Amino acid sequence: MLLPSLLLLLLLPLRSSAQLLNHPPQFVPGSGDMSRFSLSEHTPVGSPVYQLKGSDPEGGRLKYSISGPVFSVDRETGVVRLRQELDRETQDSIEVIISITDEGVFGSEPNTVSQRREIPVRDYNDNQPTFHGRPYTASVSESLPVGAELAIAPAIIVTDRDEGINAELQLKCVPENDICDIFGIRAVKLADGNYTARVALKQPLDFESRPSYIMTIVASDSALENRLSSFATISINVVDVQDQLPVFTNAPYSATVPENTPPGVSILSVKAIDGDVGIPREIFLSLEDEPFGHFELVPFGNALEGQATLQTTNVPLDREHPDILQNGGVYVFSIRATELIDGAMPAEHAITRVTIVVTDVDDHKPTFNAPEFNVSIAENLANGMPLPGLAIFVDDLDMGEHSRYELQLRDVRNAAGVFAVAPQQAQGRTPVVIKVLNSSRLDYDAPTQRSFEFDLIASTQGVQQAKARVLVHLLDANDNAPQFTQQTYRFSVPENLTLNSLIGYVNATDADSGDFGRVQYKLKGFGAHSFLVNAQTGGIYLQQSLDYEKQSAYSLTMLAVDGGGRETTANLYIDVIDVNDNAPNFEHAEYSRTIREGAAIFEPQFFVRAHDADGPTQGNGKVKYAIESENSIAGNVFRIEPHTGELTLQKAARSMDTERGEYELSVSATDFGTPALSNSTRVLVRVGISGNQRPIFKGHFTNVENLPVVGPPSYRVSIPENAAPGYNVTTVSAHDPDGLDSLLRYRIVGANDNFLINELSGLITVSPQAHIDRDLNMNSFEIIVNAVDAGTPIPETATTTVYVNVKDINDEKPKFEQHSYAAYVSERTAIGESVLRVRAIDKDLNSKLEYSMQGEVQATTKAGVSIANRSNYPVQQAFRIDSQSGEIFVNSSLRHDVAAIIIFTVMVKDLNAEVQPEQQIDTTEVTIYVQSFKDKDPVFKNAGWSSSHPVLHIRVKEEMPIDSALFILQAVDPVTEQAISSFELIEPKQSEYFYLAAGTGELLLKKRLDYEQLAAAGSAEFELQVRANSADRTRSSISRVNITVENVNDNSPSFEQRVYKATIIENKGYPERVLQVRAHDKDAALNARDERLGYHKIIYSLQGEHALLFEINNTTGEIVVARNQSIDRERTAHIQLQIKAEDSPGAPTEAKQSLAELHIDVLDVNDNAPVFSQKSYSAVIPENARALEQVLQLEASDADEGPGGELRYDIVNEGDANGLFQINAESGLLSTRRNLTGKGRAEPYVLIVRAQDNGGQLAKQSSLSTDVELRIFIGDVSANDGVPYFVAPRVGQRANVTENAAIGAPVFQVIASDPDDENTPSGTLTYRILPDTADAEAFAIDAHTGLITTRQQLDRETKSMYKVLLEISDNGQPKQTLTRVLKIEVLDVDDHVPRFVREIDAGPLSLTVWEAKPAGTIVGNFSAVDEDAGENAAIDYVIIEGNNEQLFSIERDNNSVAILKTTAPIDRELVESFTLTVKCLKLGEPAYKFVGDSYERQDASQLRISISILDIDDNLPQFAQPDATVGIRINVPIDTVITTLHATDLDAEAAPIALTVENVTFVPQFYKRSKALATGNLQRLFTLNNRTGELRTGGSFADYVDGYFLMRVCANNSQQLKRQSYTHIKIFVIRDKSLLKFIFARPPNEIQHNILPFQQQLQAKLKPLGLELHVLDTQVFTRADMSLDFTATSSCFQMFRNGNALSLSEMQRLMNSQQLRQELLDIYAMYGVSDLESCSVRRTHTAALFGNLLMSAGAWLVILAALIGVAALISLCTACCLKKKFKRQSKRSLQASLRTPTEHTPTSYSYSMPAVLYSEPIYGPL
């Protein structure tokens, strides 16, 4: 007990000291110890920047402190504040010591904890960039290429003291003027915050345009806050180079120089300088294009300074020179300024134009175009008319005032005062017109006045300069028209007058003599063809039968025409006297009627009618009817009304009253003419039912909607799609109202051969050829069936429609979309997770598919070994399948180590199968790859993925851009902790829509995603399986990627119509239907999201000013009249609205919309009464107003339209004014009905006028009216109350006057009258023309008689219509006046001749026409003018020159336009152009007298026309020698000319002809060859020059001797098909021994020039004999001893007959024949042919030569020769042996080469021809 107590006492002090221990405080790590603190240098002084935080274990108070002058700290709170400004560029970090101190405990010392901190100062962008070394300059050549950099001195250096992004600089050009377009700048980084600049040229420089530039550049940092910039300038000087042409100062040059200026006169000064002003060169001046030498350049100063004076030379200027005159008096030439290099060598030059205006000097006199003129004129030319056919011109070649002259006439004989000249003042070239001044002197009847003679004088300032004599001869004129003895003739003839009977005579006389006085008669008018008039006697005869009933009178015009064409007319009336020659005609040949048994009346009434065409004197069409007979047994059953023709029953009709149940009557109709005529008809009355009635189909279509049924009854039936042939569809049945139904026959009109019908029973069945599979063809048919009865006279047909609906039969088996499926799944996949989905398609409509797993499940290990023990791991239960959706799920835990691959079969079955249900199944194989899961396998980092649920779900929008990244796969390797960079798509291997980037894991889009297309395919979801591989590819993980395509509102609604139109009756209210609109949206809806967003749903609304008047169902689109609204047509007759269709009600921000126009026409209802323009009317009228005098115009309006808006006026209450007034019912014009004299009074007359519309004419509507009061005051006038009135002119009447009427000629007789007594002043009238219009000056009126006459000459072409205001007034008090407008029309007189509007010296009118165009082709149109009008202005045309071949004709249309046509096709190869002369003349004027006249340019009635014939390609190329035959030697050298081919094309504009060899074939002749020839590309043996046509040899012909080549040559110059020509050439290969040769006794140089004509002349002689000859060469003659004779020539030749070469013997026989030698003798003599022999050289025989030698005198020479011969023989034998050996070797080589097949080139063609074989070779073996 004592020991524990002691221990306790010892431990108490220890315990007390432990409790008093003070632990040090601690800063809060991270957030309170400034360990991660930094500070911006921009922080304001005094602002809190940090708070120190700490903790004390004892929980005591803490105090804080900080060292240094930069910061201060609140010791209690620890808040740190900034005490001084910071500058990072001076100090980028601050070192401080922070301390924390706690409180002492029970007297213990406080603890202090200190820490050292280095606080970074963060940069703030407070330093702007700095340029160093300024100013900057650069000198650059103006030839510096674009893109080159400028050398800047000094180099541009710019720095920024800041750091990071604040020190990243950008250099740019400051846009000033266009400097930044010319130079560009870029920054080059040297170090952080240190940059230089590169300046490059962007556009070419031009020193002359701009010698220097100032470029301002700006350097800006890249700070995100407080961005700073600095500016600098660069002075750029451009250095000049020689690149500019000389420049003329004050160019272009021009001056005015008078013609004939003397030499040496200075015209102007010329100066040129070098365009390169920086380094100018010397300039030399010279004249260019000044061929006439009128001017020269005289330099002043140094000749090379580019300054000179232009002076005239001794060649004077002539203003009338053709070149100067044609150029308008302007002389133009050039001056060249040439730069000189070093003052000598010419360099660049420039040219400027000098324009010299040559002024005229009076150095020419006027001249006439001929010294004397003769003209013949008609005597009836009027005053002012020009003398026709007189073309006089005066020409003064001077210009301006110098070309002025005066014209006057000087009488020579009998011409004083008869003619006048115009113009009297003229200038230059002027046409002169001689006009008639006094036409009374032109009288052919006065013999002394038949010719005139005068001089035409041209003078200047009174001095005669030129004259011309004019002789005028008068021609007699036809100046008297025929005159009838009476103006009107009237004859009467009976209508049965016989033909050619004389009716009467007319007579006319003509005072003229000769042909002009001979009168002929013509008859015109409607019906004139019925009569014939004797042209000489005037007798009128009947030519065609008359018929009073067709035409009772004829009003004709008799025309009397004299020999000059003047004519006069008289009226001829022929009255036709009626004769009773027409019997009554019934309307029908037979009448038929059916009445019922026992009927006593006809219902409706029964009329027979006949008509008589005779006139009033023959009964006037009256007809009397009677029954002639009837076949009734009872008799008198019928009665007919004599005058009306009504047939009635007197007894009841009985079918037994006649034999056949039908009454037959004969009814007659008789007229009242003399003698009376009659006619009869047959009337049939049938007792019973009339006619054959149409059958009626019964039908079995039930109208469940109670809609109106249009058309016959129909049938509706359904049949299965697998209906077999003979299947009963339905039976149609019809009823015949008037016959037996069993006699009906049924027929099918059309059913695509799918159905048959029994024509007796109407049973419709399926035909054996039917194709009614709903899945392949149509799902419905319409069968048109006819039922035909057996009625007479015409069988009747009824029609019905059978609608056949094809019912779907479940007979199609389902089919999987894929033959097999594969999926990769991790073994960690949780149970219940989806693996994949299989899908099958069934075409049947009512299919119900069920999925199931069938058969044994196969499983193998990763080594491919099948699982033997399934009890440990039941793979059969590893997966399950949803029977409805086909989705496969994990059903149990998966183990990669046991079953790495699991394969099973999925079957789909149609549960609703109707046909062979046991066979409506399909299977597919599913392979599941179970992937092992290891902690070391890659792990996908995408959200939603886990090893137990390795599935990624991606949603993408449709219509995303191609190649866009849809998703990025992210995976890491847990071993290396590095990101995976190897991905691959494993199922499917290739995706149609997606692409997986293996390195990045990006899933890219490779094909457009259209939600609507995917929806149509059945699904908008995709499933992929991807694998992530480790870097060494030893480890991997597989994930499924489910991609769901989401719908986007990318389709706007589309209306069925862009514009809708509707009508509505006004005043209709709610819910009157207007119409229904429909719009469609292509956006699809596959899921609940689509339904919620509603991209496919459409909401309708109305827009527009009147949209409130209507309502629209926002879902159906039905538009009705809105509630509490009414449509008033008078306010809105036409309503235009916009219908808006908007989709996406679930997402309004994504909505799309479309608009359609709605046009509503409001139909009128008569709901508005007429409204007068005034509430009441009043009018005042004097009592002397005449009847029908206008009083007042009443106006009313009605807002309705149609009949409801048509008004009629009526006086409904006249009061005291009964009978005084009337109103126009349509216009409302109130006028007096009669004279109001005596009705004047102070009180007004009150009338009530009604305006009523025609609304009663509308169905179910009534008329509306309004009345108004009218007060009329009739004023009482004085004694002069009669108002004068016009009798003539009537209102609108016109007066006529001819334009050549003399002054004072009568125009119109004005007639007026006054009701007052004509013997009193009130009844005396005065006429006058009011001077209110300018037209009044042209006419005068007699104040007393009213006769209007002319006061001046009238010209219709100047003014054709005048209006004058006539006034008549009496002399009473007060004066009564009346005015009326009279229009006076000036009638045309033929006083102008047609003319063409052209200049006198104008060129021809140019027209073109294609060659070979058919006759009638229009070449062109043109027209002349005639100032006359109407028929006087009608113009005709004639070709007078240039149409010798009659290839052109000319026509005119109704507008006097000339139409030039061809009369036959024209060949351009025969003629290339035509020049025609066309003359215009009056229509009807004889044209033949002008044909053959030459063109006169002064004659304006003539026009020259130039017609160019345009060429077409209508000629093929033609060979000059078609199918030629030539020969060549066997040893002919290569490139030897064989022949020259010539081809021409007759087309004028033909393209150059190209010659090509298309085919070459070799044909052997004379003997059969022992070896085959090479028949490959034979074209290589020949070359054809496409330009010259030379055919040359191109190879060796040693193997082709004794045969010929057949060559086909094509000539083509067109790109069109079948526009080529061909020729065939035979080329014979001949030995020299097969040829003959001519020997000429002339040297070769002479024969070579003549060999071609020699051969041509021989050919001409031989051709009639069927022979051809071809000369091969021309050589020096070789004698028999092989010596050359240069004085003679030999030419080998070959002869041919019919294209075949002749043998040597045949040629010798022919050429030596007596006949041919005689024929060729003259040619031989001409060309010196001395002999004819074989072409091979003849050698002298050795024996003969040896004999000669022996007979010589030198015997020793013979011995010597023998020795030499022996030696030669030995040598010859040696040579022969060597030759034989060489030939054997050559032959073997040749045979080996021939055995090598020869390939045909693509351009070679060959064909075999039979060889010509002979029994023996003619020439011996080769």
From TrEMBL:
Native source organism of the sequence: Drosophila busckii
Pfam families: Cadherin
PROSITE patterns, sorted: CADHERIN_1, CADHERIN_2
Membrane topology, from the record: Single-pass type I membrane protein
Domain (Cadherin) ranges: 31-131, 132-248, 249-368, 369-484, 485-586, 587-697, 711-816, 817-940, 948-1055, 1056-1172, 1173-1286, 1289-1396, 1401-1519
InterPro entries in alphabetical order: Cadherin, Cadherin-like_dom, Cadherin-like_sf, Cadherin_CS
One GO BP: homophilic cell adhesion via plasma membrane adhesion molecules
Transmembrane intervals: 1755-1778
Signal sequence annotation: 1-18
Function field: Cadherins are calcium-dependent cell adhesion proteins. They preferentially interact with themselves in a homophilic manner in connecting cells.
Keyword Cytoplasm applies: no
Localization: Cell membrane
Protein name: Cadherin-related family member 1
Chief site of localization: membrane
Alphabetized UniProt keyword annotations: Calcium, Cell adhesion, Cell membrane, Disulfide bond, EGF-like domain, Glycoprotein, Membrane, Receptor, Repeat, Signal, Transmembrane, Transmembrane helix
PANTHER family, per the entry: CADHERIN RELATED FAMILY MEMBER 1, CADHERIN-23
Gene Ontology MF terms: beta-catenin binding; cadherin binding; calcium ion binding
